[in-house]
Write a sequence for this structure.
């Protein structure tokens, strides 16, 4: 049976429009910085709020609403696949750096792609263009199908963030928006040392001062100090290998993972699921106010984080403009990363997921799951590279090279439309079997 040209043109144009919309959103972030509407410091704080508040709220809402005792098993293949492709990418990057003498940052550019804001914004744009209608099963609610797709991408994002926390310190350091900041530690150490602090009836008052009365704060602080001392003493009594293992596991204790756990508990516990997500007249007493609050806060994540990406790219462009010698990007490095991110992984993932969907029972019968898994490993490198050279104290020339690389990476984001079209057509073919 022949393939009509429109069968490819329509989804290609839709995917291209969705990709361009993401790029325009990034451009709005650049304009925000250029017109001094958001400073670099403020953007860093907004980015921290995105990862530590908006994303966990989104995970709680999306996972809680889509998870139940019957659908929980759907997410296991995503966990396995997310861990697998990230570690495989890292292994390929390490080997390539050694064999082809590529810069050290290349392995990170290959290992960690943008798994959070970009896929979510892409899904929203694709749904607007109507491209995804072809893979929504008959009788399935379109909004629920899109919610499921977003929840699948969020699980992948949680895995990526957790691996970044665990592996980042050993691969130079995780991204500045995801990792605990040195600024946080400095802020904690400098409490009480600022010259312009207000003194209230309960002592020195600043932005870190608890709103609780001092008589309530003191017992809490004593309990915290006592618990900290006991925990520290217990950890120091462990053998070195156990301390290293605990330190490694502690890297996974991040806000997105906690949001995932809370969302899973709510979704998999029938009474809680009913309280949070049923109609108010059907037992959902928390739906109208608490669940809606989580939803409203969570929906801030995707667009806000993309705006912050634009601000960071603007900062990089300014540094490039100010630098006398901005360095030269290795053509081998650029070609390797782009081919891996936009062509290699789609070429591997699409037929692999298609085979699993049509010839095995490993995956569920949800086409949105197949489509999401085909796209998870594609896309530009994550903004982890922004903090890379600052952490390692690299020369200014290398910082400019990485800034150029990220700018080009997000400029060619529309290349992901090829992976989108391939995933869409493969999913349609799998549904037809």
């Amino acid at each position: 049976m022949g393939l009509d040209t429109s069968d490819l043109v329509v989804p290609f144009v839709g995917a291209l429009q969705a990709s361009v919309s993401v790029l325009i959103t990034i451009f709005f972030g650049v304009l925000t910085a250029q017109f001094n509407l958001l400073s670099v410091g403020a953007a860093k704080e907004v980015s921290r709020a995105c990862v530590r508040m908006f994303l966990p709220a989104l995970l709680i809402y999306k996972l809680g609403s889509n998870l139940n005792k019957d659908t929980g098993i759907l997410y296991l293949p995503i966990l396995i696949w997310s861990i697998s492709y990230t570690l495989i990418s890292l292994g390929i990057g390490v080997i390539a750096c050694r064999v082809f003498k590529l810069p050290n940052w290349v392995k990170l550019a290959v290992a960690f792609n943008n798994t959070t804001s970009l896929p979510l914004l892409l899904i929203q744009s694709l749904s607007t263009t109507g491209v995804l209608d072809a893979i929504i099963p008959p009788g399935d609610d379109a909004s629920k199908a899109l919610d499921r797709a977003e929840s699948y991408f969020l699980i992948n994002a949680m895995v990526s963030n957790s691996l970044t926390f665990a592996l980042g310190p050993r691969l130079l350091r995780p991204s500045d928006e995801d990792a605990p900041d040195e600024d946080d530690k400095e802020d904690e150490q400098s409490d009480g040392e600022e010259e312009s602090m207000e003194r209230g009836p309960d002592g020195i008052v600043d932005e870190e001062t608890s709103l609780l009365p001092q008589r309530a704060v003191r017992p809490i602080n004593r309990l915290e100090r006592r618990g900290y001392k006991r925990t520290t003493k217990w950890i120091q009594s462990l053998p070195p290998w156990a301390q290293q293992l605990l330190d490694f596991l502690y890297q996974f204790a991040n806000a997105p993972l906690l949001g995932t756990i809370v969302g899973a508990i709510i979704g998999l516990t029938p009474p809680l699921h009913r309280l949070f997500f049923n109609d108010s007249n059907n037992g959902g007493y928390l739906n109208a106010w608490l669940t809606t609050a989580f939803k409203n806060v969570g929906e801030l994540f995707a667009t806000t984080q993309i705006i912050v990406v634009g601000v960071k790219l603007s900062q990089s462009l300014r540094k490039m403009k100010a630098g006398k010698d901005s360095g030269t990007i290795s053509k081998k490095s650029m070609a390797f990363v782009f081919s891996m991110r936009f062509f290699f992984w789609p070429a591997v993932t699409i037929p692999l997921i298609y085979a699993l969907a049509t010839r095995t029972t490993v995956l569920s019968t949800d086409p949105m799951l197949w489509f999401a898994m085909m796209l998870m490993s594609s896309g530009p490198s994550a903004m982890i590279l922004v903090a890379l050279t600052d952490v390692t104290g690299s020369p200014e020339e290398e910082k400019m090279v990485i800034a150029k690389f990220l700018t080009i990476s997000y400029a060619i984001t529309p290349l992901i439309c090829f992976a989108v079209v391939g995933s869409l057509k493969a999913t349609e073919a799998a549904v037809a079997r």
In short: The chain has 18 helices and two strands. Confidence is low (pLDDT under 50) at residues 173-207. The two ends are 14 Å apart (CA to CA). The domain at 5-179+224-432 is CATH 1.20.1530 (Na+/H+ antiporter like fold).
